[in-house]
Amino acid sequence: MFYRINEVSTIRGTEFTYVHVDFWRRKSHFDAGDPPFLTNDFHMQLQPTGAKIVERDDGWLKLAGGDYISPAQFEARIDAGAELALETEPVTHDLRAQILTNIDNYWAAAQLGELSGDHTSDSRKQLYWRNRPVPQQPTPAIVRDNSDPKGVLARREVKDLRGAKIER
Q1: pTM
Q2: If both were cysteines, with which of 12, 55, 84, 148 could 143 make a disulfide (CB 3.0 to 4.6 Å apart)?
Q3: What's the average model confidence in pLDDT over 93-112?
Q4: CA distance 82 to 147
């Protein structure tokens, strides 16, 4: 599979990242100037940051008060009705990996479903299943911008994906 990421933006008025991708079965098809085999526009809920529970190398969990507890002890105390708070620490997620994983998973599902054509939100363009047209319902246009409410578009690894050509 070979694909080109044409656009990365924000769906206006939302926190969704919009990613428009063209797919070819092989890079040689792209190099020959063949039209894409399949096109999709992704509406991704990407999380640039998050939190993870602090734990030691042996897997014990850190309580908010600073003590450590084994996962089994933690579970038993929660089951007994105790209210325990765990200490967390911030983490930065790999947005490039999230985006590419979403694209790769879609491609695998599209191949299983034998999809081709245009699988975007533009209902004027035709999607095919096993070379037969799939009826499409008219949908409102997806309005995109660069508002970036979660700071996704500002990240270097996301900026670098715009126009990227990727062979898998």
Answers
A1: 0.83
A2: 12
A3: 97
A4: 43
